[in-house]
Amino acid sequence: MQKPIISDGALLKVYLEGNESALETLVKRHKSRIFTSIYLLVNDRYLAEDIFQETFIKIIHCLRTGKYKHEDKFLPWALRIARNLSIDSIRQKGRMPCIVTDSEGNDIFSFLNIKEDSREQIVIEREEHASLHHFINQLPAEQKEVLVLRHYADLSFKEIAEMTGNNINTCIGRMHYALINLRKMMQKSVVYVK
Amino acid sequence: MTQNITQEQLILLAYGELNAEERKMAEDAMNANPDLWNFYQSVLQSKQLLNTIKEEPHPTSVAIISEHSHDSHTEAV
Question: Chain B contacts of A28, Cβ < 8 Å?
Fold first, then answer.
């Protein structure tokens, strides 16, 4: 029989009653989404590790002092904290991503379904992974933020709008441009390699 | 007759944010308009590509969080 999944709210309740392992379950459940989002926002693994720790230390503090009131919305709340810490950090370091625009050429996506286990294929996949990461970081900050929060943090556009204080249509529009710009950058890179 | 469906609505469709009625409208529009269908396919392909990035924090970070939680609990008690 499959084990029932305990909700985040129930885990938080149990944690506040003194069960330490409930927090470990929450961290395990959400660590990848939270860490990937932080990492892509700040573009620095060591800094991302610090912010990830700081996020949970802040979460623990809020829980212990009774400041958490969102019961069933743990992840959006945790991501809001992570996002704010990431933005503070970017501001402190003065990192301002810039945009790379426009090109025409072949579509890299059409090659992506080809899966081979050859060493060459592994190298290609690693390069694609590195390129994609690089391209995400070339997006304008506001587009990158929506892309990261929608795709990696898995927040709805409504939640992103609430979190960032923007109109939902603005958020969807930014996602639209982010996807278009990413595609253009990928196409440009294929043309360059050729 | 198909309604006017925008590329933004197809992004919502790709991310599962349309209701059943809106989904049906979007599907009808794509069947009638190859440009919309191509755009939707490109969004799905982009999603697939974006899924190749998945990062994990170092185990030390997770251990530090657990330790902090334990210490703060002990202090509170």
Answer: 62
**Distance of alpha carbon A50 from alpha carbon B61, whole angstroms:** 8
Contacts 24+ apart (CB under 8 A), B16-25: B17/A156, B17/A157
A60 is in which domain, residue-wise? 8-93
Tally of CB atoms within 10 A around A9: 13
Contact B11 A172 (CB under 8 A): yes
Confidence at residue A190, expressed as pLDDT on a 0 to 100 scale = 65
> What ipTM was assigned to the predicted interfaces of this complex?
0.88
Domain assignment present for A102: no
**pLDDT, mean of residues A28-45:** 94
The answer to whether residue A1 is domain-embedded is no
Question: In this complex, do B55 and A182 lie within 8 Å of one another by their Cβ atoms?
Answer: no
pLDDT tens figures, A85-121: 999 988 887 654 433 333 443 433 333 333 445 566 5
The count of structural domains within chain A is 2
Supply the DSSP string of A50-66, one letter for each residue.
HHHHHHHHHHHHHHHTT
Q: Do the Cβ atoms of A132 and B76 come within 8 Å?
A: no
Report which residue type is found at A104: E
Q: Could you report the per-residue pLDDT of A152-179, keeping only the tens digit for each?
A: 999 999 999 999 999 999 999 999 999 9
From the list A20, A31, A186, the residue facing B69 with the nearest CB is A20
Size of interface A-B (CB pairs under 8 A): 99
Task: Give me the CATH number covering residue A36.
Answer: 1.10.1740.10
- In tens digits, chain B (77 residues) has pLDDT values of 456 899 999 999 999 999 999 999 999 999 999 999 999 999 999 999 999 999 999 999 999 999 999 888 666 65
